[in-house]
Amino acid sequence: MMINELNRKFGIEGHVSFQTGTGDLAKAVVTNQRASAEIYLHGAHVTSFQPHGSTPVLWLSDIAEYESEKAIRGGIPVIWPWFGPHPQDKTKPQHGFARVSEWELFDTTGLPDGRTRLRLQLKDNVATRTLWPHPFELELNITVGARLRIELTSRNTDQETVEIGGALHTYFNIGDITQITIEGLDGREYFDQLDSHRVKLQNGSISISEEVDRIYLDTVNECVITDPNLKRKIRVSAAGSRTTVIWNPWIDKSQRMADFPDEGYRTMVCIEATNAADDIYRVPPGGEHTLSQTISTEHI
Ligand code: TA6
After folding, report:
1. Which atom of ligand 1 has the smallest separation from the CA of 245?
2. CATH number of the domain to which 132 belongs
3. Which residue numbers are catalytic?
């Protein structure tokens, strides 16, 4: 849909308008009483969120690739219907296909409390069925206020039960990776993806001084990033998820990724609301599953 048609059908004064973004991809620009945000229809990808008076909350690569077959590096990639490599077929795209699909805008709402809600939809098509042979409806609800709430609802429109994995693969903007701590995962076991998926135990809060790629299990608590440089905490809660991924690529992996600045690892960390490992959902015909993440900040 052309930008002027998006604005005619879905634009709301004081809430949301539509522009041509990087790579000529269409994006929604939300500016309301509480915050601003940007969402690309490509991948239903939230690329920025900034409560008024606050530092940007999401990290976005300044060399991200904005192309139809690429995922934008940073923000909140929608990982679906599998997390990581495809369980049986490694030739299929890492992290599924939702983040490189063109989503439809379903509706926009200016809520009475001043927040703005966008609903985007993805349905099965020839391309998705070659990768995942099931009909489906996927809906992403994005609610922008002082907090950012993302809800990914999977509806099984097939005649058989399907297994749903995925993640809201959120990249957070931080002052200095070596100075932050992450609370909320103390006492949780995790798969260490960098050590043959060995199961390890988290002792206390997380500090990062090397590449970290961990799938934490049975996670129910809110995660809190304490960032002394930016003088803030970022609170990250999830629902519909009992696995949480913590990732920082550190130096070598940053240099290996073409769309990731060599020094980018210094100012980002991923905390991902995930359905992976033993937290995959078996959704019956006509059933649905919602994975959500809520993000807020507070000054310290
Ligand atoms: O969520 C962590 C992770 O699975 C890492 O292993 C790393 O591969 C990261 O996702 C980014 O994956 P991508 O396919 O976006 O380059």
Report:
1. 1
2. 2.70.98.10
3. 169, 272
* Beta-carbon contacts of residue 202 (< 8 Å; ≥ 6 apart): 185, 186, 187, 188, 189, 190, 216
Which residue lies with its CA nearest to atom 8 of ligand 1?
84
Q: What is the pLDDT of residues 219-262, one digit of tens each?
A: 998 999 999 999 999 999 999 999 999 999 999 999 999 999 99
Phi first, then psi: give them for residue 246, nearest 5 degrees: -115, 125
Whether 73 is in the pocket of ligand 1, judged by its Cβ within 6 Å, is: no
Q: Whose CA is nearest to atom 9 of ligand 1?
A: 247
Domain span at 147: 3-299
pTM for this prediction: 0.98
Residue from 41, 288, 266, 8 nearest 161 by CA:
288
- Please tell me the distance between residue 209's alpha carbon and the centre of ligand 1 in angstroms: 18
CA-to-CA distance for 27 and 1, rounded, in angstroms?
11
Cα(6) to centroid of ligand 1, in Å? 32
pLDDT digits (tens, 9 = 90+) for 97-122: 999 999 999 999 999 999 999 999 99
- Is 10 strand, coil or helix? helix
Express the helix, strand and coil content of the chain in percent, nearest 5 each. 10, 45, 45
79: nearest Cα among 261, 245, 256, 266: 245
How many structural domains compose the chain? 1
Helix, strand, or coil here: 91? coil
Report the alpha-carbon angle 14-116-2, nearest 5: 75
Q: How far does residue 95's CA lie from ligand 1's centre (Å)?
A: 8
- CB-count exposure of residue 293 (10 Å: 0-12, 13-18, 19+): buried
Rounded to whole angstroms, what are the CA distances from 262 to 59, 84, 207, 253, 257? Answer: 14, 23, 21, 9, 8
